[in-house]
Amino acid sequence: MKSVKHILFLCFTFCFASVFAQQGGKEIYVDKVNDFILTYPDEWDLEQGQDGEITIYPPFSKEVDEESYSEENDDSDLNENELEQIFEEKIQFTPSRWDGGDLEEFVEKNFLSANLSEFFDGFTIAKEGKEKIYGNDAIWYIVNFNVGEESATSYFYFIKLYNRVISVSSFCLTEDFELNYKIKYLEIIRSTKSYLDSVQKDKR
Questions:
Q1: Cα–Cα nearest to 144, from 111, 128, 129, 122
Q2: Which domains does the chain have, with CATH numbers?
Q3: Which of 15-24, 82-91, 168-177, 180-189 has the lowest mean pLDDT?
Q4: Which residue among 29, 61, 94, 176 is least crowded, i.e. fewest CB within 10 A of its CB?
Q5: SS3 189
Q6: 76-108 burial: b if 16+ Cβ within 10 Å, else e
């Protein structure tokens, strides 16, 4: 019995990136390697990518989007290129090591100086600002761009945590932004904090 408990303890101790269920319809995602933690609605789906990147999808399956696309185009045999063009409403978190300067320098080098119009048709910055999230500096932008004949709206957030910057990008159609996604996206983004800070506060 002791050996089983010991193994479970080791598994828990050495789990670097994990998801734990919480009360109140929320789940918490922890990445100890990249030192960040966040909460998101438990009915949303989280996928882990490479180098600590995560993507969180709202509770609308891709199958529904594909079905709608098929009905609109009267074609049940979608090819791979057509499926890739289906717009996904989601929010992505990408941690980056940043020892080169302050948050403004990171944003200038990795966001403002990039020609994002190459990737987003009609890309324009509608609003921008700064705030504190759990005492950490954050810079944000609301941008608009086109997806075919539709208009899309995205949040781009950059949060400085010690020697890392968490870059956040959210995507949704503009018509859905205010009604369905703005508050939810902000709740998830503003839950982002340092894992190390959380551990230290729990020990006090």
A1: 122
A2: 45-193 (3.40.1000.10)
A3: 15-24
A4: 61
A5: helix
A6: eeeeeeeeeeeeebbbebbbbebeeeebeebbe
d(CA 117, CA 141): 15
- Residue linked to tokens 């870059």: 167
**What are residue 162's phi and psi, to 5 degrees?**
55, -115
Partners of 97 in the β-ladder: 164
3-state DSSP of 85-106: CCCCCEEEEEEEECCCCCHHHH
pTM: 0.79
Q: Which secondary-structure segment (H or E) carries 184?
A: helix 182-189
Question: Tens digit of pLDDT for each residue in 162-201?
Answer: 999 999 999 999 999 999 999 999 999 999 999 998 887 7
